[in-house]
Design a protein that fits this description.
This protein has 9 helices and 13 strands. By secondary structure, the protein is of the alpha/beta class. The strands form 3 sheets. Strands 1-5-7-8-13-10-9 form a 7-stranded mixed beta barrel. A two-stranded antiparallel sheet has the order 3-4. The longest helix is centred in the first third of the chain and has 25 residues. It is flat and about 65 Å long.
């Protein structure tokens, strides 16, 4: 390579440098059907950006995708600020706070409840979003990390899981720790979509009966506590949702033939909302779409854990109420829905697999899904014809 024709980046023309910074910006932030998957630590019941422990264990949250551009140089910071509408978001947030303060004062004078103010931000028609907020970091205050509290999923991690349990609260009151200006009254930004990262150890040594599981200082114990709270009075939760993230799960797509639809398929089957972090894209699937994953004779995937938990719950429920109509207890809801209707599942989009058929290799039938290449499948279909 001729080094005489190579120019250092600072020596490039300004227009070319700005084009390079623009190309480096992520365009996922402005995509209609994309929502972020954010990994946060819980500190004093507030969600905050976790510390950087080591190079191997980096924070892979969606808000970190453009974090390097905030610290590269002054030019990159100006470009990413323009790309993320930083100034416009700050102005709209300030306007919303002023209107909220005025509405609060009017409420105190008139005694009538005030309407909730929704910031007039860029709202795509298919997925309306409120104005994003700037989440605080424990160690780096130079980055402006944006999150959408109304649509993003927050995967929480905490040292003491029992500290999050308060029976007097209808829903775990986890608030986003956002950047604040002095002399401003900020409304709480409560996390509405909570996620737990699944670990195969959840499926081992489940207590039977399950009375003590919600009091276990672990992620699965906290999950059991959330199920109790959700089933106890589902009306109080509103649109709050609970997710489990299984990054290793293989899943089958739902195939609908056109003849089976007497009307237009629902929007859910036309175009799914994609969740993303710095590593992959995630989709919400039904529990029956998951391909079983075994460790010996034990099923270790998230769907198997929920099925096992649901079986133990129903067994305990039948032992409690043997005669008469079923009465809702701490685990089973009034209409006797399984736990799979209470908890949602997120899986990696690239882990989609195909069903096996009679022409598949023995390996496919052994693992439970087809691993044949496209050429092999084409040869099988032609040989069948």
């Amino acid at each position: 390579m001729d080094t005489s024709s190579f120019h250092k980046f600072p020596q490039l023309p300004t227009e070319l440098r700005l084009q390079i910074w623009e190309a480096a910006c992520s365009h996922v932030l402005t995509t209609t059907y994309y929502c972020g998957l954010q990994y946060v630590d819980i500190y004093h019941r507030q969600a905050i950006v976790p510390k950087q422990v080591s190079f191997e264990k980096q924070n892979r949250s969606a808000y970190m995708l453009d974090s390097g551009l905030w610290k590269a140089c002054k030019e990159s910071k100006e470009v990413i600020a323009k790309h993320t509408y930083l100034n416009k978001n700050v102005v709209i947030r300030e306007q919303s706070l002023d209107e909220l303060a005025q509405s609060t004062r009017r409420t105190k004078r008139s005694g009538r409840p005030s309407e909730k103010y929704t910031a007039d931000w860029l709202k795509p028609q298919a997925l309306a979003r409120e104005c994003p907020v700037l989440i605080r970091s424990r160690e780096d205050e130079e980055c402006f990390l944006f999150v959408h509290p109304d649509v993003d999923v927050f995967c929480i991690k905490v040292d003491n899981w029992l500290a999050l349990q308060h029976d007097e609260l209808p829903w775990p009151s986890i608030e986003l720790s956002v950047r604040r200006r002095p002399y401003k009254v900020y409304p709480p930004n409560i996390v509405t979509k909570i996620a737990l990262l699944y670990d195969p150890s959840w499926a081992t040594d489940l207590p039977n009966p399950l009375y003590n599981l919600p009091y276990e200082d672990s992620a699965r114990g906290y999950l059991a506590y959330l199920i109790q709270q959700r089933v106890a009075d589902a009306v109080r939760f509103g649109r709050k949702e609970l997710y489990i993230i299984d990054k290793e799960a293989k899943w089958f797509p739902i195939i609908y033939k056109e003849a089976e639809w007497l009307w237009t398929p629902p929007l859910y089957f036309q175009r799914q909302v994609l969740y993303w972090d710095c590593d992959a894209e995630y989709v919400e699937v039904k529990w029956f779409q998951v391909a079983p994953r075994y460790n010996g004779s034990d099923r270790v995937d998230a769907a198997g854990f929920i099925h096992k938990l649901d079986t133990l719950v129903r067994r305990m429920h039948e032992a409690t109420y043997v005669y008469g109509p079923k009465v809702p207890c701490l685990w089973v809801s009034g209409n006797d829905d399984p736990l799979t209707t209470t908890i949602k599942l997120l899986v990696r989009r690239d882990n989609q697999v195909k069903h096996t058929n009679l022409d598949c290799q023995p390996t496919c039938h052994r693992i439970g899904w087809c691993v044949c290449s496209e050429e092999e499948r084409a040869c099988m279909e032609s040989a069948r014809e």
